[in-house]
């Protein structure tokens, strides 16, 4: 950035305040993905969910969330990212209130679906707004570090808050807590964020492409989450999986022929973008099961309660915070994202490898805590690097779409990884008692296998990082995490009275 384009101190301050607002909205959405998990037994007892239907308290949120991220991100480019972000916050906040007020299963599931819609709309444009607000390389690296901390640590913090709120004031408050935060975020966003006009509809909005990709992603997420109940080899899972592939193929054909495609092919011309998305998908698939399966291990094998379990995973978000906020921006600025990423993935592999050796008679300090250190450090370094690389091919006009792609890959990868690893653990555990193994030993063997397979997924991500992302020159997305057109990105986040 040239000297004449450097923002004044007051403008700089307002941009960091705008970042805080964006991250507050994103944190609500990320927390909601895990905060419910700890409260499920209380929800089941209160509203009378059956064991088979209880999982839909989570799935009703995941399906629209995973299915709408890409479309909502594109809408941000077309109609203005501030407008899309605020709309998502409003929907999410109202839906959170309705979740807390729900008195029966149907009301809660409908409200959870609406929450998923609002969460997708909010999340889809957040990263895009971050990279267009901060165009100076050093500041952008720091801003992406803050965003990455929220993304990576929010889920773990949700486990802690879920247990505390459920035990202290009841499960309704895991939803009510979103309401004042959401209202404040909406009011402040209207005052602080810049209203962008967007690129407009051009030759059209590619309505057919929008229907195809949204249907494909929702169907894919449904097939993945339903596999936990019906099995990956069931006719239902395979049928919906095949339907998702057909819809994706039809979407690809549509994009090749449309005059103004929803997902322009140019988005995949940069190796940094394609490689980062592939790496991100495998890393999340292998790692996301950690915050689910390690909780089960501590509760079912070590005998921890909800609050103890939440406290036990606190080292992960703390380390993620230190890495994302302080160390990652400096390392990426000095060595480049491509150099930092392999080391981060190697640390994650090491952490999962440690968990792949947990014993049935283990203890937290000797068997779980040692894994949280490399996992927290590795994830805290990997997320800022991946976020910067994934946005490196986006022009200001496409940054919402790139943001939606990054979050879609994360959500689908998380759903797929959790479903696969949970199914592996359950099936392996189910086979062991016939051989005379105790319940604790059988459970632990299943968790060990899941962590080992998760480490293999992350190892695959490492292979992509050192091959596809390898380059002899310092790429655009390395030091600054900036795209090829980032220097032309408009300043955002300055005070504006425009709604």
Automatic annotation (TrEMBL):
<keyword id="KW-1133">Transmembrane helix</keyword>
<feature type="transmembrane region" description="Helical">
    <location>
        <begin position="335"/>
        <end position="356"/>
    </location>
</feature>
<feature type="transmembrane region" description="Helical">
    <location>
        <begin position="144"/>
        <end position="165"/>
    </location>
</feature>
<feature type="transmembrane region" description="Helical">
    <location>
        <begin position="109"/>
        <end position="132"/>
    </location>
</feature>
<feature type="transmembrane region" description="Helical">
    <location>
        <begin position="273"/>
        <end position="298"/>
    </location>
</feature>
<feature type="transmembrane region" description="Helical">
    <location>
        <begin position="16"/>
        <end position="42"/>
    </location>
</feature>
<feature type="transmembrane region" description="Helical">
    <location>
        <begin position="368"/>
        <end position="391"/>
    </location>
</feature>
<dbReference type="InterPro" id="IPR011701">
    <property type="entry name" value="MFS"/>
</dbReference>
<feature type="transmembrane region" description="Helical">
    <location>
        <begin position="207"/>
        <end position="228"/>
    </location>
</feature>
<dbReference type="Pfam" id="PF07690">
    <property type="entry name" value="MFS_1"/>
</dbReference>
<keyword id="KW-0046">Antibiotic resistance</keyword>
<feature type="transmembrane region" description="Helical">
    <location>
        <begin position="234"/>
        <end position="253"/>
    </location>
</feature>
<protein>
    <submittedName>
        <fullName>MFS transporter</fullName>
    </submittedName>
</protein>
<keyword id="KW-0813">Transport</keyword>
<feature type="transmembrane region" description="Helical">
    <location>
        <begin position="449"/>
        <end position="469"/>
    </location>
</feature>
<feature type="compositionally biased region" description="Low complexity">
    <location>
        <begin position="477"/>
        <end position="493"/>
    </location>
</feature>
<feature type="transmembrane region" description="Helical">
    <location>
        <begin position="54"/>
        <end position="72"/>
    </location>
</feature>
<keyword id="KW-1003">Cell membrane</keyword>
<feature type="domain" description="Major facilitator superfamily (MFS) profile">
    <location>
        <begin position="18"/>
        <end position="473"/>
    </location>
</feature>
<feature type="transmembrane region" description="Helical">
    <location>
        <begin position="171"/>
        <end position="195"/>
    </location>
</feature>
<feature type="transmembrane region" description="Helical">
    <location>
        <begin position="310"/>
        <end position="328"/>
    </location>
</feature>
<feature type="region of interest" description="Disordered">
    <location>
        <begin position="476"/>
        <end position="499"/>
    </location>
</feature>
<dbReference type="InterPro" id="IPR036259">
    <property type="entry name" value="MFS_trans_sf"/>
</dbReference>
<keyword id="KW-0472">Membrane</keyword>
<feature type="transmembrane region" description="Helical">
    <location>
        <begin position="84"/>
        <end position="103"/>
    </location>
</feature>
<feature type="transmembrane region" description="Helical">
    <location>
        <begin position="412"/>
        <end position="429"/>
    </location>
</feature>
<dbReference type="InterPro" id="IPR020846">
    <property type="entry name" value="MFS_dom"/>
</dbReference>
<dbReference type="InterPro" id="IPR004638">
    <property type="entry name" value="EmrB-like"/>
</dbReference>
<keyword id="KW-0812">Transmembrane</keyword>
């Amino acid at each position: 950035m040239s000297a004449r384009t450097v923002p004044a101190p007051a403008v700089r301050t307002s941009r960091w305040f705008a970042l805080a607002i964006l991250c507050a909205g994103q944190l609500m959405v990320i927390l909601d993905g895990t905060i419910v998990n700890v409260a499920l037994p209380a929800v089941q007892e209160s509203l009378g969910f059956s064991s088979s239907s209880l999982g839909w308290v989570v799935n009703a949120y995941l399906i629209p969330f995973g299915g709408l991220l890409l479309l909502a991100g594109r809408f941000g480019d077309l109609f203005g990212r501030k407008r899309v972000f605020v709309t998502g916050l409003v929907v999410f906040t109202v839906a959170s209130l309705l979740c807390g007020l729900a008195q029966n299963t149907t009301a809660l599931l409908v409200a959870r679906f609406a929450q998923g819609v609002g969460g997708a709309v909010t999340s889809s444009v957040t990263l895009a707004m971050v990279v267009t607000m901060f165009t100076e390389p050093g500041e952008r690296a720091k801003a992406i570090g803050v965003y990455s901390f929220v993304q990576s640590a929010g889920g773990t913090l949700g486990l802690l808050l879920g247990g505390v709120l459920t035990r202290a004031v009841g499960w309704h408050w895991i939803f009510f807590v979103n309401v004042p935060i959401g209202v404040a975020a909406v009011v402040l966003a209207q005052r602080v964020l810049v209203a962008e006009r967007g690129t407009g509809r051009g030759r059209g909005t590619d309505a057919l492409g929008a229907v195809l990709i949204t249907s494909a992603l929702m169907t894919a997420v449904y097939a993945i989450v339903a596999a936990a109940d019906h099995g990956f080899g069931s006719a239902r899972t395979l049928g919906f999986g095949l339907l998702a592939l057909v819809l994706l193929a039809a979407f690809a054909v549509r994009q090749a022929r449309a005059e103004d495609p929803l997902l322009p092919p140019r988005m995949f011309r940069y190796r940094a973008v394609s490689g980062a998305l592939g790496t991100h998908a495998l890393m999340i698939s292998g790692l996301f099961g950690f915050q689910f399966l390690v909780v089960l291990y501590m509760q079912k094998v070590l005998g921890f309660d909800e609050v103890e379990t939440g406290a036990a995973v606190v080292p992960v978000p703390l380390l993620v915070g230190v890495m994302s906020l302080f160390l990652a921006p400096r390392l990426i600025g000095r060595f480049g994202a491509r150099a930092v990423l392999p080391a981060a993935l190697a640390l994650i592999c090491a952490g999962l490898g440690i968990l792949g050796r947990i014993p049935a008679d283990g203890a937290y300090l000797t068997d779980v805590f040692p894994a949280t250190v490399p996992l927290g450090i590795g994830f805290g370094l990997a997320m800022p690097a991946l976020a910067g690389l994934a946005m490196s091919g986006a022009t200001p006009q496409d940054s919402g779409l790139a943001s939606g792609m990054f979050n879609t890959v994360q959500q689908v990868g998380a759903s797929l990884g959790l479903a696969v690893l949970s199914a592996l653990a359950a099936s392996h555990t189910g086979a062991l008692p016939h051989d005379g193994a105790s319940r604790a030993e059988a459970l632990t063997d299943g968790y060990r296998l899941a962590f080992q397979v998760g480490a293999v997924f992350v190892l695959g991500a490492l292979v992509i990082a050192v091959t596809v992302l390898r380059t002899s020159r310092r790429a655009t997305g390395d030091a600054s995490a900036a795209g090829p057109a980032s220097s032309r990105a408009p300043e955002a986040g300055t005070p504006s009275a425009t709604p």
